Description:
The structure holds 2 protein chains of 2 kinds.
Chain A: H1 2-7, H2 16-42, H3 52-55, H4 58-83, H5 87-118, H6 126-157, H7 166-192
Chain B: H1 19-23, H2 28-57, H3 67-102, H4 110-129, H5 166-194, H6 207-239, H7 252-286, H8 293-306, H9 322-350, H10 359-380, H11 384-390, H12 394-424, H13 430-456, H14 473-499, H15 566-582, H16 587-610
Helix pairs in contact in B: 2-3, 2-4, 2-14, 3-4, 3-5, 3-7, 3-12, 4-5, 4-15, 5-6, 5-15, 6-7, 6-8, 7-10, 7-12, 8-9, 9-10, 10-12, 10-13, 12-13, 13-14, 15-16
Amino acid sequence: MSHAATAHHTSTGLDNRKIAFWTFIGSECLLFGSLIATYLVYEGRSVAGPTTHEILNIPLTTISTFDLLMSSLAMVLALAAVHRGDKVWARVWLATTAGLGTIFLGFQVYEFQHFVHEGLGFTTNLFGSTFFTLTGFHGAHVLVGVLWLTTLLVRSFQGKLGPDKALNVEIAGLYWHFVDVVWIVIFTVVYLIQTTPLPTA
Amino acid sequence: MATTAVPHAPAAPAAPRGLWSWITTTDHKRIGVLYGVSAFIFFLIGGLEALVMRLQLGAPGASVVSAEFYNQLFTMHGTTMVFLAIMPLSAAFFNFIIPLQIGARDVAFPRLNAFSYWVFLLGALFMNASFLVGPLFGADALSVAPNGGWFGYANLTSPQYSPGPNIDFWVLGLQILGVASLAAGFNFITTIINMRAPGMSLMRMPVFTWMSFVTQFLIITAFPVITIGLVFLMFDRLFGTTFYNVAAGGDVLLWQHLFWLFGHPEVYILILPAMGIVSEVLPTFSRKPLFGYAVVVYSGVLIGIVGWGVWAHHMFSTGLGPIADSVFSASTMLIAVPTGVKIFNWIATMWGGRLEFRTPMLFAIGFISMFIIGGLSGVMHSSPPADLQQTDTYFVVAHFHYVLFGGALLGLFAGIYYWWPKVFGRTLREGPGKWHFWLMLLGMNLTFFPMHFSGLLGMPRRIYTYGADLGLDTFNLISTIGALLTGVGLLVFMYNVWASRSQPAAGKNPWNAATLEWAIASPPPVYNFAVLPTVSSRLPLWTEGGATPIPDTPPEPVHVPGGSYWPLVTALGIVIMAIGALMHRALVPSLLTGIAGAAVVVVGIYRWAFEPFEV
């Protein structure tokens, strides 16, 4: 068995997957950075159709933001439960995290179809294109996270998510927290700080 | 030498054979060879495209190809050389050499590594298929290849000005290739941070590994930016959004910013690995340690950082205003400093050394001299007033070919000759090697030096012909002759490869080099190191006791991970999705194909994640 010891030796003592995942998150920062920068550059440049003040619903989105923040708390609790080998609470908190993520996606689906109903489609104006692309990219990340968490939940029910697999949960958690933080930025720059001039009429 | 008195059978399995073993391989050495062979084939294709262009430009008013086909030729030549030739040739060295230099048995994620290769290969085939599949779009063959330049400026590439499938191939192909580069970037950063042999501290790493390390950071930060630029362009083309539509309030400069935010770091992605290679070759054939190792490393890191702050020098002619022009002009001049530092270090390495002018050394010296010429013309257009005269002329073509051909490619050829015996166990011949070098050096200078003049005389880039009364004939004829000569040099190289089969075995360390990859057999066994060495020197093989001895056969069983075909399946799914997007003119088949591709990706990832595979 001595080969196992050498095979898993690492220079930093950290697991390879963890380092790779942090580099992935660094890369994702540039991805979302480009999307957010584009949104900000184009804000207020739409030549037709509804824009931010007329359509963004801050109270509603505050609720979905709170929902996503709470999912990060549940994620932390899920990891703690897996660490201490507590199968029941691991399942509860994993399911809660995935459930809160699904609720967030529900809010987003409602918001999107409401906007389309109000006359803001993907191609209506620059605001529509940049808004749906930015929040859509984020929503796709949430969806991947929900599928990932669901997979972990299934593994737990299969009895294959003991404390030795805590790192798998930790990395899913890194992803989940990152996606959550990105949403905080999006919520702030898109919803809270609107720079589009108010309609003069 | 291991064969004489082996008391027991080798403890690790011999390398598996056959086509299937190559398709499922996760061995970094095999993936390196696959990268190298594929990239070389695409390099030949890109070179052929260049030759046809040079034939067209050899005489004024020539009609070797049509203007429409010429547009496809220069677009695919640039795209191919950057993304399908130089980057993957560098990747071949990352794969084969980095784990050996740091004393590792493989990369951190062998299957992700295979995935990178297959995505690259399939993306490259996807892009090049555009030459052939015109009839599927109701057009002729050789008519639907990308034709908007390698920089794909919107709104030339927007649907209103490029309605055909040409740009779709380009937009989708580059997104696929980005996936390959990003996955490889995460993999190699992790490998270099975490898989070093005991004692191999960061400042003991060979300079090639260091420069590759910096390159990976540039890749993982630059590629997301172009991905977003491409996504916007794709949405404009597929769904009718208006990201780059001025009439709807969009800004075509957004594309240029996103493209060059990627595009300039990309320049260093292309050149830093070559700088690393010559930093290995020069000390070996000067029989002297690299002069100022730490400064060379820090200069490389600085180039990587400042390389992120110079992108708008590609955009001086767009009228960014005096402040932006001044800042980017200054940062561009600044980045010449660490580059110059490296050049002085390389020269100082040779100074007083016992020089051996073997073929790798010739290519390395060629790299330095040609890179200086390209660097000097680069500093010339860091000044906006000068740049306004030079931009979009053949002067710029001359500049970046001195940097990318004279620089990156000569550096890569230095690496090919240097590491060939390590990879294949036999040294390439010196005679044809020297012919190859001199023909290529002469050919490239004949090709590109006259372009300085034709450019300053006003010959624009990307033009398919020119009038006889413009005084450009002679310069262009010389360039064409030079291109043919370069092609002859390449034929000599291919002959050399073929002839190397009858060369004697090279042994472990034919050049008497200093770094760890030369401590093991050539070609290396599947497990690389029978015992992972402990390193106590920057030059382990030039220092007494610089590394613990590595036996020829493993004293105890070595675990070698098996192969996997799920990375290939996942890569196939990605390309099927891209084919679905390519079919966007027919909604239902397009959606079905896209969904099928996504399903293949999901299945591939899940099977990949849950198959038994112990690293």
